[in-house]
Amino acid sequence: MMRQLMASAAAVALFAASGAGGAFAQDTSGTGAAPPPQQGQQLPDVEVIQGQPKPKPTQAKKATKPKSKPATATAVTAPSSAPETTGFATEGSQEFAVSPESSTVKMSPIGGTIPVDKVPGSVYQMNSEAITRGDQVILQDALTSQIPGLIVNDLQGNQFQTNIQFRGFEASPVNGVPQGLAVYQNGVRINESFGDIVNWDFLPSNAINNVAVVVGNPVFGLNALGGAVVVDMKDGFNFQGWDVDTSFGSFGRKQVSTEAGYRSGNWAAYGAFEAIDDDGFRDFSDAQIRRGYFDVGVKGDNAEFHFNFTGADNNVGVTAAAPEQLLDISRSLTFTSPQTTANTMQMYSVNGKVRATDTLTLSGVTYYRHFNQKHIDGNLFDKAADCGGNLCSGDDEVVNAATGATIPFNDDVAYASIDKTSQNADTAGLSLQAQENSRLFSHTNQFIVGVSYDHGRVAYTADSELGFMQPRFVVAGQGITLSGSDDFNPRSLTTTNDYFGAYFTDTFDITEALALTVGGRYNYARIQIENTGNPENDKLNGTNKYNRFNPSAGLTYKFAPSLNWYGGYSEANRAPTAAELACADPANPCLIESFLTADPPLKQVVSHTWETGFRGTIKNWQDRSQWDWGVGLFRTLNTDDIFDAASTNVGHGYFQNVGKTLRQGVEANLSYRSQRLFAYANYTYTDATFDSDAIFPSPNHPGAGTIACGEAGGGGDDNGPGKCYLVQKGDRLPGIPAHTFKAGFDYWMTRKWKVGADLVAASNQIFNGDEANLARPLAGYAKVNLHTSYDVTDHVQIYGLFENLFDKNYSVYGTYFSVDDANDLSDVTGVTFNENNPRTVVPAIPFAAYGGVKVKF
Questions:
Q1: CB-hemisphere CA count at 13 Å for 486?
Q2: Residue 626 above 60 pLDDT?
Q3: Domains along the chain?
Q4: Which of 114, 137, 180, 520 has its CA 20 to 30 A from that of 443?
């Protein structure tokens, strides 16, 4: 199937290239020069531009002269980037103009742009200058600094493997986290096949050209419940030159990154690479990151094609949450190890577009992606017991070796386990789109229609190795794979995903001021699970199918060129992942991300989003400074939302539909640009609550009562009593702060010296495992990062970055652990925990300083 798909995709690409025929005109202007603009020569995305100001001519950006300049982007709903300048503009300069070109945004993953002021929803964008303005190499941190409502949520305790959370919806590298954001790279959906996870550490930060967060557009397909994150990479047409960046700093950080772009006539090439080594501020939290990107493209009068490659080979220590009592001793300590994740990925893609007529553009993308992950997780053993001289688990089941041999019980050792999972995934897909820009009833109109198909196949294995607990909560493996108990039986299976989508969107100018956008997408998902291991596990076999049409409609009204109103309604859905479907039986819980069991099917999640707001721009005399602002309301109601629930069997859990959840609130943002100062501030209030009652088990929660866990439609292990609690409508969703505030600035002290800072503040959040809001929440925080740079010459820049400037101790994620199980090991670990405090948290990075040198030509 995979070979047939790739052969078909290759045939389509070759046919499109050959069909373009004479679309490429020879450029004789010489190396590095763009073709002179002529009538009909360029091939931009077709845009609705009626009533827009005439854009100012620009040249392809070159990586020469790293002079300081006004900040080039901010995350706002209005135009998102300031103009390129030739350096710091002196007082009275007539060359400097603050007003950016008309900002546009994609209406689908593979193109078709319209001006932002015709989008009936929120749009936040950051270009490459905005992403790198704080000298960050971690994309999640750069996005967090400026995009309203977006924060980092760290479950794993490593900066390179964090989640991003937008309005309470997440895109995470962790299996088991409900994935509520669709993520695209150059038109390719990069939510991985098995759990829809997103590996942000695969993206070289220096190769990113633009990131857009788009809300309320079902065209972006599955998982776009809270919106879509659209990442566009650089190429040789928009970047020429060469640069290298080296830096070092706290916790053993060493980094080198380089990029180069070259253009010759109609051909262009671009490449980027990053290598980062970091020891981490906690024990066993080191990271080795190797990632790169390459693109070669050809562009002519009526066609443009690109081939690109993304590759990564990363090893990350994921130290996860630790008991608060342990962190009181030292915030560098970890609770059970080893905990490591090794990821490798290679992705090849071809994308292109052909202008078939003056108004019709055909676009497409095809890709192949290989992803391999090996995860190792040292854990406590669930109440090891002596059963007639043999080892038993907490439920009195005999634990054997995978060979069938019994394991003698030894009362002199502290038992533990090392749980291992691996996934070997191959994904391929094809998307085709047509965009028609002819007038309709004498009015400007843009119509887009497209289809997409994605096929994924994953070989997944899970097993557990017998271990003995050592000091510092380190688990020493004994080389014995466990079996016998349902808690430890090895699993081996193959999952197959087939996703099909057909979509359309149309933007019609009713008047020059009023625009109507309607659209929709039909999604079909087929998810098959096949046991490839012990025949006793054939109960895992099954096929689940989901389909839905998601509509959208909205209006925008331009009161003035600098004042715009928007309002719209949209729906989106996500199908349960193979990981969730294979672990959805409360009567047969599994070790999350490790063990899979037969299950009842889960329902798909559907979101219903309303949004309205205003955005605008205020310029002063002669365009020497500019304010951009936006304010809006949003409301998203999810039905049949999926949550992971802890089982009354310690360390295990399952997934369940919990009815309705609600995320609603307000966002406001403001930015200012002048010749010497760029400043921004934004605030988001997110009221994230359960909108129906549910029952959650929570075996480690100190306030959970003994009730029938199976009441109110399920939610427990069985219909008997267990340590559970009742979640009521209006209870806050865990892990989502109600208030976030961000502010920052860049100030040019001189033409060569720039100083800037960023503040991120968030209010408290509910602990995961405390869905009933019974316990004290995780405290809020405020942190400040400082950055500065100095241009030594036109080609050399030195810079510094200071994270958590005031060295604040705070945590970014909280959950619970089994105090009894941990105290059973106190003779070995030397630590005895207070049984009244089962809280575990992920501490944030303390003060850290980094410095570096950039060389550009």
A1: 13
A2: yes
A3: 2-582+605-639+659-692+729-856 (2.40.170.20)
A4: 520
